[in-house]
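>> Question from a student workshop board

For tomorrow's exercise we were told to take the sequence and the ligand below, predict the bound structure, and bring the output to class. My setup keeps failing. Could a helper post the expected result so I can at least see what it should look like? The ligand is 6-O-phosphono-beta-D-fructofuranose.
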Amino acid sequence: MEGIAIMTSGGDAAGMNPAVKSAVDYARKKGLTPFLIRNGLRGMIDGDIAQAKREDVSGILHRGGTVLRSSRSKRFFEYEHRKTAYENLQKHGINKLIVIGGDGSFAALNQFYADFGVPFAGIPATIDNDIPGTDYCLGVDTALNMIRDSIDSIRDTATSFSRAFVIETMGRHCGYLAMVSALSSGAEICIVPELEYDLDAMGERLRKDVKDGRGYILAIVAEGTNMAEYLTRWIKVNLNMDARLTVLGHVQRGGSPTVRDRIMAYKFAVSAVDSLIAGNTNKIMIYKDGTMGSVDIETVNSTKVELNKDILQLCEHLSK
Ligand code: F6P
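>> Workshop helper replied:
Here is what the output should look like for this input. Compare the format with yours to find the bug.
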């Protein structure tokens, strides 16, 4: 029996469920026996592993988060716990793994591969879109649509009260969500770690706008800059406008996966199963310049995240 186990690990992202379903269905079609590991790396150590039944993955495709649940396990850093995880896999005859998560999870599985030789394929999933080597990670489109809905709502109240709103988006150290959201919602300000900002120039530009009749301001700030509270005070003092701060928080991580996330989940899952069947041992699935592919984990570890240059350029004037 050729067992293949599927797990989700790290921060949850919309698209994980359709990826789980597609991986299970496709693996079975290819003659493998699919297993599900619940609770991520923690579940691997605790033996939370069972053969996938059809009903486990039916009716999950449209659900946000991950039905397999997730974790960020510190125990997995220790060899003794990884050994226990390996023994658990052996009990079930599992000799292939698919991990749907971020680069931390990929690194953990790579260490596991080095220790015990269990091949794995990684599917990038994080709303931050910050995994090197791929243009797209599962969850990003759904998060962007959640953010768009929130900003549209905020705009209603901002226009009604002639106020400025500073809206903080997630993204840890990456400004992708903030930039795309600023562009798609026509924001006046965008502050992200990747772009230098100039508050003096911004003040001059916006004071002129307000004088010319601009009634409200939307400012999108990436959490990684830690600038949201400061900017809210700055707007009050420098633009003489009432300002409020909204931290969107975890609402951005939830919601039913968009069409894009469902289709991308399908493509990533099929690539991951095919990659393992082809005998690859530690590849990460990628979507680059419109094409699916895969790269060695070392490439992910040694490459810097490259943000889309067009988006960076389009946002530049919103930081000044
Ligand atoms: O990596 C995904 C992410 O949602 C980041 O955008 C955010 O900084 C972080 O996870 C939040 O982590 P937690 O859910 O552990 O609070």
